[in-house]
Amino acid sequence: MGTQPVATDSNTAVDDRELLERLRHDDEHALATVFCRYQRPVYWGSFSVLRNRAEAEEIAGDVFLTLWRKRQSVEIAAISLLPWLLVTARNLALNRSRSISRRREQPITEPEDQLPASGTDPSEQMLAREIEQTLQTIVAAMAEPDRSIYQLCLVDEFTYKEAAYKLGLSHGAVRNRLSRLRARLRTELTHFTAGGR
Q1: Number of domain units in the chain
Q2: Are the CB atoms for 93 and 45 separated by under 8 Å?
Q3: Same domain, yes or no, for 116 and 36?
Q4: Domain ends where: 120, 154, 178?
């Protein structure tokens, strides 16, 4: 992977469309920014399928490698890479889950290192659009300070302490609100991330 000299990004200074364009120009710094921005939701998307921390961590890493490999063909809805990353995480996690099931039943007779071509199937593209629309609807309906907590903790990767300081709230208030937000997001997105289409 080649690199280009670029200015150091803050985690929120560059939107995903610009990051994707930089990825297409082989900018590894852009990939690092995407990783820092979305590693947590991608991990939890993988974990929701596999229910195994080690496997979920490995799949989360594979998601960002897949993004790099497919950087010339990736298309995103609206302004966020998150739907594409979540769909890819789900596909890779399901593929790994099937592989684990086969491994328990019989010896492996085919290579396991082939990753599915996420984002090219029309049904996957539709799923990505549906996830993006659902996320936008959920976030738009949030009242303050929940919307800001969502942005700071789930998108910008602030710690509870950092978000609490920025918003003038207690650490416990941010933690409790975020717990409720995550529960709501899981409920709203179960239809997509758990395979119920």
Answers
A1: 2
A2: yes
A3: yes
A4: 120
The residues, any chain, with a CB within 8 Å of residue 186's CB and separated by 6 or more, are 48
Q: Is residue 129 part of a domain?
A: no
Token pair for 181: 């937000």
Last residue of a domain, one of 120, 151, 170: 120
pLDDT tens digit sequence for 8-60: 344 445 789 999 999 999 888 889 999 999 999 999 989 888 888 888 888 88
Please report, in angstroms and rounded to a whole number, the separation of the first and last CA atoms in the chain.
37
Q: Is 132 helix (H, G, I), strand (E, B) or coil?
A: helix
Q: What is the pLDDT of residues 148-167, one digit of tens each?
A: 887 787 666 677 788 888 88
CA distance 193 to 7: 35
Q: Is the dihedral of CA 147, 148, 151, 154 positive or negative?
A: negative
CATH number at residue 7: 1.10.1740.10
Long-range CB pairs of 113-118, under 8 A, 24+ apart, other chains included: 115/62, 115/66, 116/91, 116/92, 117/70, 118/66, 118/70, 118/84, 118/87, 118/88, 118/91, 118/92
Q: Which amino acid is at 36?
A: C
Residue-range definition of the domain harbouring residue 193: 142-197
